[in-house]
Amino acid sequence: MTKKEILVREALLGSNDKVAADVRRMLRQRKILGVNLMSSPGAGKTTLLERIAERLAGTHRLAVIEGDIETERDAERIRAKGVPAWQITTGGACHLEARMIGRVFPEIPSDLDFLFIENVGNLVCPAAYDLGESLRCVLLSIPEGDDKPKKYPKAFLTADCLLITKSDLLPVLAYDLEGVKREALDINPRLTVFVLSALTGDGLEPFLEYLHRAREKAAAPDA
Amino acid sequence: MTKKEILVREALLGSNDKVAADVRRMLRQRKILGVNLMSSPGAGKTTLLERIAERLAGTHRLAVIEGDIETERDAERIRAKGVPAWQITTGGACHLEARMIGRVFPEIPSDLDFLFIENVGNLVCPAAYDLGESLRCVLLSIPEGDDKPKKYPKAFLTADCLLITKSDLLPVLAYDLEGVKREALDINPRLTVFVLSALTGDGLEPFLEYLHRAREKAAAPDA
Asked: Considering chain B, what percentage of its residues have pLDDT values greater than 70?
């Protein structure tokens, strides 16, 4: 990378951080928990959001911002659950940036409990961009294999929690569950780890309780 | 992106294309088929290479360049099969570039039949970088779901073949195999599609035959 390119990049990243800080401040003022979901393609982010939508229906207000390279597919799946969803299609960009969130932000209702942001399916690049969330979750699906955390460390290093997903496939795959947890915690000892299946709902309850606690904490006056 | 950043980026990409052209010319002169494998993390690239190494042992000469953000893990797995492997750790970069290949190229034996390049696990960014390969393969694993081609079109658009992997999981997952093929071919009608399990070896044979034919074609005097 040339010095000029580094400067251009820093300026762009700097601007990202400023917009992210604005988004985070607005979410906190409104007592909304912003959650950024990051993972490889197909780790189960949208299916998890469908399950959360079903579980919180009638008791909590949520909305979803969907990030994808192309198509409205994920937003349509969320809307089918009765939850408002905004699709950002990045048209080639491999991650969401705070400015993309900033552009749809005026349309988001101000009386929400949770705003979920589903990032582009990519275990690498999204980790470098703060979107103004208060909680960052990385999903790692069991069929991806048990050697991933140290090969893709940044997502694990910057996340608050790790969701090991598709636990319904544990009986049919050779997988070192304890080894994966250990490796992820070795990268980032502050990670809270959950093992769940969004398909069957197994293990969803502890994660929902964690979301509620995080929301209370983020909405506290001194947060 | 500013005009200045676009210029800097174009210069960098231009330089990538020049190095890629050099790598491709050298591989063709030596009658080596260069194969670039791209996919999400955990789609089975390394396991496929292990199976290929076993099948071609004693009859063909191959080598592997492994791309990862961190760790030597994949190169170690390939070396355990008796195949020379070079690990490129990108230290954060989300894809391989031709210059990275160019730097290890002088160490690669000149009497090979196949040089496999396993890209960083990322279904988005690697598609934008020519590495000097003659054959580009995108892997899509069945547990990633059947809605991926149109969400991540560039990898499918730029590939010569699509390997739908982990077919051993078809019996336990709801998956529209014909729908995925149709969608991928809708993006790129020139794709040759294979369905296989690197775990069991099912479906490997037609892909190996395809590799042999591609090598003969790439090594032909008028290639």
From this structure: 92
8 Å CB contact between B118 and B49: yes
| Reported pTM | 0.92
Nearest Cβ partner for A148 among B4, B42, B125: B42
Q: DSSP assignment, residue B73? A: H
Point out the residues of chain A with pLDDT beneath 50: 1, 7, 223
Cβ contact A73–B147 (<8 Å) = yes
Helices (H) and strands (E) in chain A — how many of each? Answer: 7, 7
* DSSP element (H, E) containing A165: strand A161-165
Closest in B41, B145, B151 to A152, CB measured: B41
Check B148 against A71: CB less than 8 A apart: no
**At residue B221, does pLDDT exceed 90?**
no
User: What is the end-to-end Cα distance of chain B in Å, rounded?
Assistant: 38
Query: Which pLDDT score, from 0 to 100, does residue B61 have?
Result: 98
Residue type, A208: L
- Report the alpha-carbon distance of residue B176 to residue B184 in Å, rounded: 12
Q: Which residues in chain B touch residue A145, judged by CB atoms under 8 angstroms apart?
A: 41-42
Contact by Cβ (8 Å): A120, A126? yes
CB spacing of A125 vs B123 below 8 angstroms: no
> Which chain B residue's Cα is nearest to A44?
B144
What residue type is assigned to position A99 of the chain? R
| Model pLDDT, residue B218 | 81
Q: How far apart are CA B38 and CA B24, in angstroms?
A: 18
Query: What pLDDT score was predicted for residue B4?
Result: 53
Q: In this predicted complex, what is the ipTM? A: 0.89
